[in-house]
Specification:
Elements lengths: L1 H14 L4 H16 L6 H10 L6 H14 L2 H13 L5 H17 L2 H18 L4 H12 L9 H10 L3 H7 L1 H22 L9 H26 L5 H19 L8 H31 L2 H12 L3 H16 L4 H19 L3 H16 L6 H10 L3 H24 L2 H10 L2
Helix pairs in contact: 1-2, 2-14, 3-14, 4-7, 4-13, 4-14, 5-6, 5-12, 6-7, 6-8, 6-11, 6-12, 7-8, 7-19, 8-19, 8-20, 9-17, 9-18, 10-21, 11-20, 12-13, 14-17, 15-17, 16-18, 17-18, 18-20, 19-20
């Protein structure tokens, strides 16, 4: 009854537009106050202990690297290179958008940041190339979701810290599913363009191609630097985030020369806003987890699941439906922190690999980025395009179906997620 009351208070506060972190913390503290003699002094201790972990320091690092990349010309030169080589092909501009999002995803770890950085350049370019506005907005919003699947990924970092799973293995597990999803989007974009005759631009000369390639080399080395240093054992994911920041700063200031000292304040403000929101949610979720642990909710749910003889596929079906519904009004980090403490004991009892579950969950979190009413990528694209949210939603609907199919494939074939972690990081 107390758990049901807690969720009821949380939902009421959320519907009153109280921020998610505040809603979560207030509802939990209120239940503690009303239903037990719990020492409330433990709550701030638990909140600070929850964010006082070294792996979480990777989050501000990757966020800052993504902001620097967006403002320092890195994303612009990557896009120019891709346009020079494939922009003239059928669907070339849409393929450039998807590939640029894939590259940016391998640096930023954030879906809204990916959609914003690439969309700012490719939205006007695709509209000029004759693409329908609705389709263009949907493609950018959907391609931006790659930001949390292709490593590094902020939700995977949070999942790893919460479940005590190797973040390196989680990053490795996201590579194959990420590139399968990116490849699927590319195929769809090419077929769509051929059917409607969209997207062919003037063919670049060989001289223009080589010049754009040379300019893009420093930028294209960044994903290699981040992931290579992690998997070679040179850096932890947290250390790699710091390396990414310094490398991006150097090439933005001294190679591309598009970042000026006066821009630093805007860069830092944007980074702090994003990071503080994530950390506040994590701290509030620690209070929620304290309530669950204190009332043995995960153990009780696990016992109920065990008595019900639910198999792996039924568990996946129920959890993914739950994530899909929660994704319509909560963002990824909140969903992970609210549900994972309850689900972990159940996963262990029925033999689900936490790495496999993490990737399936992350794809569902990608859906959360493009499902109304709180899909963050929808708001990003709507703001850039100066278009009603409903138009963006209509444009993204076909891509939601694609991701649902991807979700099913990953559930049925766990080796797609586990192949690389098993082979490379034994």
């Amino acid at each position: 009854m107390t758990t049901a009351l807690l969720f009821s208070i949380f939902v009421v506060l959320f519907l009153l537009h109280v921020p998610i972190a505040i809603s979560l913390a207030m509802s939990t503290i209120l239940i503690f106050t009303l239903t037990s003699d719990f020492n409330l002094m433990m709550i701030p201790q638990r909140m600070f202990a929850g964010i006082n972990t070294a792996p979480l320091m990777a989050i501000p690092g990757y966020v800052l690297a993504g902001v620097l990349m967006s403002r320092g010309g890195v994303s612009k030169y990557l896009i120019e290179c891709l346009k020079a080589w494939i922009g003239h092909l059928p669907g070339g501009l849409s393929v450039v958008t998807i590939l640029a999002c894939t590259l940016f995803a391998a640096i930023s770890g954030s879906s809204p940041a990916t959609a914003a950085a690439i969309g700012a350049i490719m939205l006007p370019a695709m509209l000029k190339g004759g693409y329908p506005k609705r389709y263009t907005m949907g493609l950018i919003a959907a391609s931006g979701t790659l930001g949390i699947l292709i490593p590094p990924s902020i939700p995977l970092i949070v999942y790893g810290v919460t479940s005590d799973t190797s973040i390196g293995k989680l990053f490795m597990a996201g590579i194959i599913p990420g590139f399968i999803l990116a490849s699927t989007l590319v195929i769809i974009a090419i077929v769509y363009a051929k059917i409607h005759g969209y997207g062919q631009t003037e063919k670049a000369t060989w001289s223009e191609r080589w010049k754009s390639t040379i300019r893009a080399i420093p930028a294209s080395f960044l994903p290699v630097l981040i992931l290579g240093s992690i998997y070679a054992g040179i850096c932890t994911p947290t250390e790699a985030a710091v390396v990414a920041v310094f490398y991006t700063l150097i090439i933005s200031l001294f190679v591309y020369k598009e970042l000026r000292p006066k821009d630093f304040r805007k860069v830092l403000v944007e980074t702090i806003n994003t990071t503080s929101m994530i950390f506040l949610i994590i701290a509030a979720a620690m209070v929620f987890a304290l309530f669950l642990t204190n009332n043995q909710v995960p153990n009780k749910v696990a016992a109920w699941i065990g008595e019900s003889s639910i198999n792996i596929f039924v568990f996946f079906l129920l959890t993914q439906l739950m994530f899909f519904v929660m994704g319509t009004f909560l963002e990824a980090v909140s969903i992970i922190l609210i549900t994972l403490p309850i689900l972990l004991p159940i996963m262990r009892s029925i033999g689900i690999d936490p790495i496999h579950f993490a990737i399936v969950m992350t794809v569902n979190m990608e859906l959360a980025m493009i499902t109304p009413p709180v899909g963050l990528n929808l708001f990003v694209v709507s703001s850039m395009a100066k278009e009603k949210l409903g138009e963006v939603i209509m444009g993204v609907l076909p891509f939601i179906l694609v991701m649902l199919v991807m979700l099913i494939v990953l559930v049925v074939f766990p080796e797609l997620s586990l192949m690389l972690p098993t082979a490379v990081m034994k």
